[in-house]
Amino acid sequence: MNLLEVKDLETHFFSRAGVAKAVDKVSFNLEKGEILGVVGESGCGKSVTAMSILQLVKSPPGKIVGGEVLFEGQNLLALSEEEIEKVRGNRISMIFQEPMTSLNPLFTVGEQIMEPLRQHRGMDKNAAKAEAVKLLTDVGIPLPEERVDEYPNALSGGMRQRVMIAMALCCRPEILIADEPTTALDVTIQAQILELMKDLRDDIGTSIIMITHDLGVVAELCERAVVMYCGNIIESGAVEEIFKHPAHPYTQGLLKAIPKLTDDSNSKLYNIRGSVPNLMDLPKGCKFANRCDCCMDQCKTSMPDETFVSKGHMVRCFRNGGCENE
To answer: What is the pLDDT of residues 65-79, one digit of tens each?
Structure first.
């Protein structure tokens, strides 16, 4: 059963130089208890999509110009600011990028965890602090009774990220949006954070949208994935299917670019040629055409429709299988 449905979501940014279509008719769904990966290069629209779900896009210059975000049948985009505040941090929470800068340096970590507890769950100060200590314990922070009164600058990057997760989970949300939650963390801490999120999903049944550019994270954590490029979803399906049978040249390029252990010291890391086009001056046809090794004339003039290459596996490519299946 779908808990969240995003339908034809459009978010644009307006400036004197033109209009940037950061999110262009994006559609996907999230089932109860599911972990969904949203993958793509920086600037492909992943974070803007997440911010749009909770009406967090700053206006101006950004504006949600079309689409629906249905949460248990209710369109979140139609809610007033007062109404959406009852959803944010309560029923849908978000872990923002960069734990180093997401926490307010003027307040203790305990005070920042206590705020949503008091606002959404109506706890008094003492009860909220006791719950904050419990949450810090749950996310694996040592000496939580002491850490709760410390300021963010006294904590390591990994501990700050755990504090962010504790804040996001304090109201036991139905959906957790994790925007690059392992950024700037070493691999050991990354593994611990991913294991923690998996455990939390299993313990309280929270559905998770994992936004990342790291395909290794997707393989480790997610059941389904959507691949974004220039504001569009160009491929989606079960993670195992996408990894074994990538159907879009862009997805194939991302998978080729994953570093591999090899005995050949002269081997070069694969990279996708070219660069992402300017969002204010997008090509007429397929947005990946200028970087694609198997581009056809048709790709330069029209955008391919969604095609299902197997059950649940969607791709937007005229070749319906990418360059490797020519």
So the answer is: 999 999 988 999 999
